[in-house]
Amino acid sequence: MPPPATDLSTFVAAIAARDRLRHVALPMFVRRRLHAHPGQACPLCAAPYDLAQSRGARLPVVATLIHPALGGPTTPDNAFLCCRRCQQLRAAADLVASVAIPDPLRAQRTAVLLASHNHLLPLSPHTHPTDFAQALARRHHHPRSRVFAAQGEDGRCLIGVSSRFGDTQSTGLARLLARLAGAIVHQDHRLTIHHVEDKAFRTLVWQLIDANTLVVALAHLAQPRDFLDCWWITSASPSALRLRQVGITVPDPARSQSATTPHRLTAGARERLQAEHRVVRRQANILRQAINDQHKTHWLDGLEGNTQDEQRLLDGLLTAETQAAELHRQLKASRDALDPRRTARPLKRHRPWSP
């Protein structure tokens, strides 16, 4: 089990031990099968292969759709051939984040992500397998990225965003969300670490998971309080995730949400709810301003907008607005419970007067 401590130096050392470029070789029979039928051109750049130069940029090489560091499996389905230049430009990023890939590779990527390491979904174990797979696929529309996280027993939480694996857009989104939720406590040329309070951490980590981020747990609570504390659980089996066969008892998400929304709130709980509502509204305003600035820049420069980048910002804005609406509903429900004049009263029916 990961250590319960969330000391900054320990957290940085743990990330340094895991955030390394390791050569992951696919099985030899997979490589031979791919090299036996290389095709005529690279599926990414459409440039013809050059088999004459063994060290040339147009030589076909074996690459993975989802890097194993991002949770991808070392199976034949996760391998394909492309030219050496495209693989060097893409590095370890998700294939969908770099170029416009053809439909066969896109379908292959979808199947690979279903067999990769994924986080839990707030769905019932009785959910139909097809519906569960569709819910996972909605996460997989985003490029796969990776962050490191630690949740301490003392309420101190840390989020580490590294630029070694994943694309620049996903890394930028993770840093933006973490910066909105907490302060930067460590930063170097590759790694940025944010200190986040426990309540904001539980919201942030699930926002990253919904954006197809693999959250690597370096420390977590030994006993989860509710479903949100089960962020660190991953499995490469969709059926195990659906049935919650992950080694521990996973709390029901519906019960955890209803338990944290009482009809009557104490003064301290109400103040914390109001503060969280202000933070979420501020996040929504920042994302809305970023979208407007991006549209204005593209219009002034005469450039076409980046659909994936805009979609990430819009998804983040939708999530923030949804949270703000839910917090507003909870505050209104608490006001109605405290003030009896706000409750609906039945209308009095008077008998018609007759002389």
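Next protein, fold it too.
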Amino acid sequence: MAKVIDADESGKQNLDAVTEALKEPVTTETDQTAEKVSSDSAWDNKSPEELKAILNEQKNMIGRQSNDVGAARKEAERLKVELEAIKKADAMMQGHLNRAQSQEPAKKPDYYGDPESAVKSQISSDPGINDMRKELDTLKVDSIKRDLSSSHPDYAEVLASGDFEQWVSESPMRRNSYSAMNRDYDIDIAKELIAEYKAARSDTTQKKPDRAETVRAASSGNVTGSTEPSSGKKIRAADLRALQINNPSRYQELMPEIMRAYQEGRVIN
């Protein structure tokens, strides 16, 4: 038999359930989302003008940041180039330093221990003195050329000829004189060598008398005797050179007679 529920009892239970339900507020998911947006949003109270200003400020800030990044990149590139240049300069300086250390240090002049060498070293390293020395050498050479040309106008051709060089090489004394002439610019030795060379070549190129003419002259009684250009005393060239080296002042005094002896063919080897 079915159970019969009292209507009064059922209505009371429903009323209690409704009352209990009304004690706690009912919150739906949509209401929760709307409440969160309302509480978290920072733009709810902003006007359109304010929102536009905020947007422009954000754009300007982004532009400034981009410019700062570009400037930072350029500065980094510049610093990189400078660093490479510094590295190259440092490597170059290190190379110079290594070469300088490997070279023997220059010896300082010792004015107390060896004053003569110190003074010579100082003079030889002075560019002004070197220029003056070159100028004086040039003037000296010009003077020698003029003096030598007055005695031997053809001196340049003689000194440049291969025959003269061959003649000089045939005698050790001539080689020494030739070296002294070039080393010391000795005009007297130059004059003597040229005169001696001309005399030697004059003797070798002198025409020998024809034998038939000699016989005819002898048969006719027309023999004139010796064909020597002069009856003066013969002089050895080696003796003249020795005199010039050992007693140059006496050699200068006898220079006119010596030149005459060369011209007369009385200087022999």
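About the second fold: Residues 1-5, 207-212, 214-229 have pLDDT under 50 and may be disordered.
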